[in-house]
Amino acid sequence: MVLRKSRGYQDIEGTSSESRNELPDPDTTVTQEIEMASMSVVPDDTFTVTQAVNALGFGWFQVKLSLWTGLCWMADSMEMTILSILSPALHCHWHISRYQQALTTTIVFLGMMLSSTFWGNLSDRYGRKHALSLCAILLFYYGLLSAIAPSFMWILLLRGLVGFAIGCTPQSVTLYAEFLPTKQRAKCVVLLDVSLMLLCFFLSRLFLCSFVSFKCFQCFWALGACFEVFLALIIMPTLGWQWLLALSTGPLLAFALVCPWLPESARFHVASGQTEKALETLEKIAKDNGKPMLLGRLVVDDATTISPHRGRFRDLLVPSLRLTSLLLWFIW
User: Fold this and answer.
1) pLDDT for position 60
2) What is the per-residue pLDDT across 210-235, written as a single tens digit (0 to 9) for each?
3) What pLDDT does residue 86 have?
4) What per-residue string of b and e applies to 30-40 under the rule 16 or more CB within 10 Å gives b?
5) Where does the record place the region Disordered (predicted)?
6) The whole model's pTM is what?
7) Exposed, middle or buried, 1 (CB in 10 Å: 0-12/13-18/19+)?
């Protein structure tokens, strides 16, 4: 018997068919029995993505991911904040009515509502990284076109397409949460005072301690809103709303440029049968965090199934998830 250990896997190969047809050698029978007995007591060491993330802890990998995905959340905040600035500017520029001012905001949220299911399905089928990359490109493109819109109807169309792309930005939260250890996950996605978050960021850069796993998304949302208002105070009186729309796409461009370095979800790779890619991502986490990689074989979580029908909307309403889904929809 030969024990072969590959990357993340252990399997046992039997002897060849020719050797199985031969009679056993009495001199080696005892040796083989001892070898088989020693192998039988070795446990089948397996681990899941969740167990690996918990073991590797919070470190430099999560700090970098916080900054990258935080740019997406910051851009989302700026696109939302600009709605309260754009409507009065269009009223002065094109003398639009109050109904039309309200429509410039409504069309964005309508695009978000119609696209959220589409982006969720796309992320479950092709990965969160690919969906976020496409989202960043579309947001930057339509946001930039909005700055040169020749009429109010063009503004409505382009802002509606911006809202359609914004529907994907919550996937950044999902991607970030899937790389967080269980103990730090809740602390990293709930609201905390912005000044404390900024302090935690500098502390995390210096010490990389788990207790300074700052609440990055609420932080970046607040920073994006403040930055948009500050930008409007400088740009609007001199250059006008067109330049404000154009310059507000800056974080989108930055996020689009870092998307190639954005890691894909290891849970997605395992669920889609790409175990080797999941192992590569986990080894990257171990290297960045300075932790040893887990030994054994990576297996699928009990709650994760390899199915060609991943991403179906009706899966949210299966008996085990129906109450949770309905309550979350009601809260939002």
Assistant:
1) 87
2) 333 444 555 677 788 888 888 888 88
3) 87
4) eeeeeeeeeee
5) 1-26
6) 0.69
7) exposed
